[in-house]
Amino acid sequence: MAKLRMNDEYRKKILNRYIEHAESEDTQEKQAYLDVKADIYDLYEDTFALAKEVVSRAYPQEDVETCRTLKKKYGQPLDVVAKDKCFYFSYAHEQNLDENDYDNREMSEHFDFGLYGTVNSSEYDNYDSGRKFAYALYRDELKAKDCNPDIFPQQAENQDNPHKTQHCEANDKALGYSNYNRYNSDNDNNIGITDSFDKQWYLDIIGTSHCRSRTIACSKAEFDTFQMFKKKKAQLISAHATWIDTITAQKKAMAMGLKAYRYLTEGVELMNELGVECDEADLIKTNSSGLTIYNPQNLASMLKGMKNKTMTREQKIAERLKYDTVVVSTDTPVQDAVNNLLSE
Q: Which domain holds residue 217?
């Protein structure tokens, strides 16, 4: 039997199957990512408990209740209690060489407990760091929805482009992120995962202006804890990127190697050497996404669909019911299915 020549379709099949294997493989890089990810929820709970303590010192609960009582009595002019999940925490230096050196008299920074909260020291980073964190934390959920949570590591060397934007928008939609911001409000139009995540971290504050105008005092030790919170979130982004970088490098090397192969057997041999089960028959009867299309039932259905395409509503319903009851079997040779089709 003559050897089957390699072609782009076979190369794509082999490459897709290898990437699937690489992502499921236990490696040091993947384990490091999973370890950091496993600690995130405890990190959030511990840091939020501290934030609640600090915010409560600035806005005692009795004061919050008093403001709410006054609002009920006097209405909208005294609507000054709001919920927020981001805060400007600040601590004063214990020693100041120059009392007029206002820039160095205190340290302040923006801390956002939201899923898309910025990870950098500045709140103004175009929300990319927040996106990277959200995609890394909910990678499995995004993959399950046929999204690409790895788009940032994959596009690390490229500027913004339509391909990257398309995947980011799909990820945001899958996570329920609206990209709509309102100052000091828990009504930001987020839904789904983002909404469920964010609603855990809101606190009552007094004042309805932007959080930067209501800096909340804390100790240096508390401030350091809040900064560590950001660093841990950044570690998840870094660990995710490091792991995906290894897969991207493997994908490039694999693609280059497959281009040099002339016969399908060479690709199969490579896969087996890499510990991935693969044989020619399996590759031939599947399309590039790994779906079996040339078993008898599927082939017959595919060929029937190539003719007599105009169908009544009743015929469409009947065909769908027939499809739903089909039990796919690969025991009958493809030729038998073709013969059955031709004899109808």
A: 23-247
